[in-house]
Design a protein that fits this description.
This protein has 164 residues and is an all-alpha fold. The chain has a domain of 112 residues. Helix 2 packs antiparallel against helix 3, helix 3 runs antiparallel to helix 4 and helix 4 crosses helix 5. The radius of gyration is 19 Å and the shape is elongated.
Length: 164
C-alpha cells in the first residue's frame, strides 16, 4: 500500500485463506506417518534453537515464492491480460486468481512438499497418508465453491475464473 500497489487480497479473503489452509493442511499433516529412517537419526540437541538456519531459510524461501506468485498472478491479470471484463469485474477476477494461486498453487503444493524434511516426497510412500489425500480433495472442493458459488462471490468480492 505504501508504494501505491493495490493489494491482491482483502482482509476478509485472508481470513478465508487462513481458515481453509489451517483446517486442511495442518490437520492432514498430523496423520503423516514418520519417515522410515527417523529412529536412525541422531537426536536433536535440546540446547539447539527450535528454528535452526535450515528451517528459517526454507520458511523464508517458501514465503518469498508464495508472495511473488500471488502478487504476480494478480498483477498479470489485473494490469495486463484483457479478458473483455469491466474494470470492477477484472479486479474481482484477478483477486480470485490470486487467492486460488495462494491456496491451491502454493499451500496445496507446499502441503505435499512438507511430507518430508529432506529428500524427495515422491516415492512409494506418497499415497500412504490417505487423510492427506482426502483433505487435499476437500480443499479443492472448498476452493471451487469459493470461486464459483454466487453467494461466496458476493461475500468475498471475487468473480468466477475465465479462460484467456
Amino acid at each position: 500500500m505504501l508504494i501505491g500497489f493495490t493489494l491482491p487480497i482483502s482482509a476478509l479473503q485472508i481470513l478465508w485463506v487462513n481458515m481453509v489452509v489451517a483446517i486442511t493442511v495442518t490437520i492432514s499433516l498430523s496423520f503423516e506417518p514418520p519417515e522410515v529412517d527417523v529412529m536412525n537419526r541422531v537426536p536433536r540437541n535440546p540446547k539447539e534453537k527450535l528454528v535452526d538456519k535450515y528451517i528459517l531459510i526454507r520458511t523464508l524461501y517458501a514465503s518469498v515464492i508464495f508472495t511473488a506468485l500471488t502478487f504476480g498472478i494478480f498483477a498479470l491479470f489485473y494490469r495486463t491480460v484483457d479478458l473483455g471484463l469491466a474494470d470492477d469485474m477484472r479486479f474481482a477476477h484477478a483477486r480470485a486468481l490470486a487467492i486460488n494461486m495462494l491456496v491451491m498453487g502454493s499451500s496445496l503444493f507446499y502441503l505435499f512438499n512438507c511430507k518430508r524434511m529432506t529428500g524427495s516426497v515422491i516415492g512409494k510412500d506418497f499415497f500412504k497418508n490417505k487423510v492427506l489425500l482426502v483433505v487435499a480433495a476437500i480443499l479443492i472442493v472448498m476452493q471451487i465453491g469459493f470461486t464459483y458459488l454466487s453467494f461466496m462471490q458476493s461475500v468475498f468480492s471475487v468473480a468466477p475464473l475465465k479462460g484467456g
